[in-house]
């Protein structure tokens, strides 16, 4: 979130993004939706950071898959305040080192783009079977809305 001193002029390259509504307890608002993650991180492990913003389209997957994979391999807990997105079976594309903090944005049926998550961690760089883990925006909506009210 940014508080700006001036209004922003929106263009085809600068657009606002919607915050999602509070989702059901199951957290399935974005499940199965193909979303876009963007960042300036590495294209592959050990490479240099990118000079141009890159994007990758990835599906949101059930958190149970990430709970199993990250818990089993790395002993890293994936919690209800996370959302997982990426390829499960293929060696696909995903986020990499340097992409942390970037958006996971989803185009929903209403035609609007929503901020589903913020890049948190992954297995490296799109390791097969390991979707990346994002901070789930809907979990933090009460805090975000409170901050927006008190900092007007």
Automatic annotation (TrEMBL):
Gene Ontology molecular function: serine-type endopeptidase activity
Keywords attached to this entry: Disulfide bond
GO biological process assignments: proteolysis
Domain of life: Eukaryota
Residue ranges annotated for the Peptidase S1 domain, each copy included: 1-149
PANTHER family in alphabetical order: ACROSIN-RELATED, HYALIN
Family: Belongs to the peptidase S1 family. CLIP subfamily.
Name by which UniProt lists this protein: Peptidase S1 domain-containing protein
Organism from which the protein derives: Halocaridina rubra (Hawaiian red shrimp)
Lineage, highest ranks first: Eukaryota, Metazoa, Ecdysozoa, Arthropoda, Crustacea
């Amino acid at each position: 979130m940014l508080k700006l001193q001036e209004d922003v002029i929106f263009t085809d390259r600068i657009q606002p993004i919607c915050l999602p509504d509070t989702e059901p307890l199951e957290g399935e608002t974005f499940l199965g939706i193909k979303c876009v993650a963007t960042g300036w991180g590495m294209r592959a492990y050990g490479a240099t950071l990118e000079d141009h913003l890159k994007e990758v389209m990835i599906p949101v997957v059930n958190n149970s898959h990430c709970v199993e994979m990250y818990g089993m391999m790395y002993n890293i807990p994936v919690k209800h305040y996370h959302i997982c997105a990426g390829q499960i079976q293929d060696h696909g594309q995903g986020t990499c080192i340097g992409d942390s903090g970037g958006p996971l944005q989803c185009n929903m049926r209403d035609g609007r783009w929503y901020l589903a998550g913020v890049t948190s961690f992954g297995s490296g760089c799109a390791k097969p079977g390991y979707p990346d883990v994002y901070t789930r925006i809907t979990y933090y909506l009460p805090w975000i809305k409170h901050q927006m009210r008190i900092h007007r």
